[in-house]
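Let's do one together. I've listed all components of the complex below, 1034 residues spread over two lines.
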Amino acid sequence: MSWDAWGIPENRRALSVEVESLLRTALGISPHPRADSSQNSVRLTRSRLSVERRHALEAILGAAHVSTEDAVRVHFLGGKSTLDLLARRSGTLQFAPDAVVFPANEEEVHALLRYCSDESIAVVPFGGGTSVVGGVDPVREWFDTVITISTRRMKAMTALDEVSRTATLQAGVTGPEAEQMLASHGLSLGHYPQSFAFASIGGFAATRSSGQASAGYGRFDDMVESMTVVTPIGITVCGRASASAAGPDLRQVFLGSEGTLGIITSVTVRVHPMPECTEYRSWWFPDFVSGSAAFRDLAAMTGRPTVMRLSDEAETAVNGSKDGGCIAVATFEGTRAQVEARAHMADGVVTARGGDVRSPESARRWEHERFDAPYLRDALLDAGALAETLETATSWAALASVRATISSALVGVLTEAGTPPIVMSHISHVYPTGASLYFTVVCATAEDPSTQWRTAKDAATRAMMDLGATLTHHHAVGRDHLPYMKSEVGTVGATLLRAMKVALDPASVLNPGKLIP
Amino acid sequence: MSWDAWGIPENRRALSVEVESLLRTALGISPHPRADSSQNSVRLTRSRLSVERRHALEAILGAAHVSTEDAVRVHFLGGKSTLDLLARRSGTLQFAPDAVVFPANEEEVHALLRYCSDESIAVVPFGGGTSVVGGVDPVREWFDTVITISTRRMKAMTALDEVSRTATLQAGVTGPEAEQMLASHGLSLGHYPQSFAFASIGGFAATRSSGQASAGYGRFDDMVESMTVVTPIGITVCGRASASAAGPDLRQVFLGSEGTLGIITSVTVRVHPMPECTEYRSWWFPDFVSGSAAFRDLAAMTGRPTVMRLSDEAETAVNGSKDGGCIAVATFEGTRAQVEARAHMADGVVTARGGDVRSPESARRWEHERFDAPYLRDALLDAGALAETLETATSWAALASVRATISSALVGVLTEAGTPPIVMSHISHVYPTGASLYFTVVCATAEDPSTQWRTAKDAATRAMMDLGATLTHHHAVGRDHLPYMKSEVGTVGATLLRAMKVALDPASVLNPGKLIP
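Okay, and this is what the predicted structure of the assembly comes out as:
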């Protein structure tokens, strides 16, 4: 992955004529090409790792797996939020970890955590580096040294149980690698978040990632049977059965723990037979309200779609629809006979709510382009536009008011700043009782775009908190959402999180400055 | 509920001629009528509640809601395991709480917990009193006073969101009361554990209860959207949305916490429209192996049954089948068109695994009698037979060996004790990756039946632990399973549980002697 942009250079694309025209007419932006930046010109903080400590780390891992070189450290500056990209593009000194280390297995991770606890060295676990909430920033806090632990070398499928349909994957396995390893057995995980191409199994678990097929296969946390987690006080395996009544579910403590309570080194996940075929649907609704009513009904339907995504009027228009209203896309994965029956039943739900079954072309196009949005964001930044997303989840009853209030907050703050935005939203993860809401914001860049975005996001986040919606449905907390965690979990919840932290990480070296309020 | 037997006297039944004959021929037991016991003859420990403390409790709750009377305390001696029933029938002094208190709301519960923390008074939360693991025993430990908090007065549905399909029920609402309140809105919770008639919403949450319709509607923990929990350090509400990525899922800490971390005072649950109709199926399999292979396939099926239960050869025979093999029963709840299609699809799965579709009579009979087993146990005890159950869950791949090893352990220990048993088992909760295993044991009563059962159960439980199965799928931990919790969760897990306990209940007054290793 590029250090200063999403993904790999070969996949970058220029803005389409339509988008350039939209930027001009709707936002008053004259697209201008970006001044080229390259790794050669970046300036990193110097490594503060002492020679003694370097030798100690090398004794644990071997010299080849401890790096203080700029060419390595530049790839571990943090994640890929718009704030991150703005900072990388700024030409300022970049805060880098003092070293990056590459353990091969859980024993090496445990030795590292014991050493770092003893020496009071901050430790940042790093998977694919796709965080959009500052989750892997090498925050120094009060530590004189901060090292990043890459899970890159832990790449194996260590067990496959074809009877129970579970696979044990090491933390560093990426989305495509998992699918490739499983495909040779006719199996699939079915977890396709936007970060799919780069993100890792350990990261999916540590952040409660949710993929585009969550309606069909569940969120990543639903897929986890058991996990191996290395903490400074020892290695633990949680999860002895699919379900248990033996007390609190400790898997659910480490899921979403974002490297603050331990480092997840392997995960046993539920897998399923590769689907025989996919049925596509595009539905049109006169407005978002009727579309979300249909989505509520579909969410409760036995055999509901595998993928479900409903764009609001603004997103539908920006995506090129000329008919007004809202477009929804859906896929149904399974056997031929079943997917047709399910799609037919879903069509009935849709039409009962005033929707229309349209050509499935938009669903196919959505699938074809579904991992492209982060590349588009880079192109927009290049063109002088600010583009970023934020998300939440709430109940079906509260959905309309949460959406309206967050939209207004974003429009209000950015308009006041002299940069009136386009705010688009969609539903892309559904539950019987509620759904996620995902917002995309595009506007002209102000003088200080970081402050511009932070101010807008703060207003949106405060609106979520006030309305009882959750701080994040699948982006996680990291550094950016930490100031709101106390509102999210309350005083007792915050006390409980801190108690877990103290028990598992007594020296408090694990991923400082993230998650724990 | 009777103090010394399951349920209500009107529902008791004599043993059938078939069962009496089975006891004689298979176990060498000559059924003899039980000597009548009654509340008048029971002797309870005297209340040690001081006058000052009584006045303090009355000041919080009102005098009418604090009781030290034997006629009240006798109903709070503990749960309803066979060990409990043996102790009640023994004629010995019964250990009773020093007082029973009946708070009306979460503020009163909070005041109680603050007072008891300050005064170092042990507190046992009590819902329906249906625990079979000693979960509500008034354990004194090092405390001079132990009081039981009944949730009986907290009986309201405080909110209903018909759009999101969630209902907020106070902790003391029982299974039938919940269904009745929801039915008037055309809704249902769909949670039918064996304890349904008496157990409470708070208890379901605190013990991770699982109902007979778990294949269709999920376990109780799956149904929980949010919870209000009163802890000594404050009141917390966990759960802001169906799903969230805002750190560890704190609902999953309080679910299964068995009153050791806080008292759950209300739960917002997912509900669903009352099903239009039910389709019944009975399937016959030549053996348990083919039946469980079919159940694995059914568990992964879209539109799987609502109830799924597969009896092994022994249970099938005891239930009166003359054909050998294994009988499975299933129900499908939903709309007429859908349940027929789902049942038809399931029949295909069953026949592909060598099963036969039989008359649905056994499924209807199972449904009719599904809450009767605990009454039968009392009749067996009356007749001089020892009858008890235990359960676990494991992966599909491990199921056969876990079942065989636990069965052998039970048969081995009880045969060695001179009381060879009948051991029956069934699968009644399924997941894509594994299932529960439920064992019923009947044998002649030895001189000291408590030691007889404890020895057998210990052997079975050690087998579970050795094989990586879970300590309990839905009975919870309580006092009886506490010695095995360290094996279940490991050293790090135990440290984590203790840290949670210290943070939330610093005076350690909540439900002592249960769950926390």
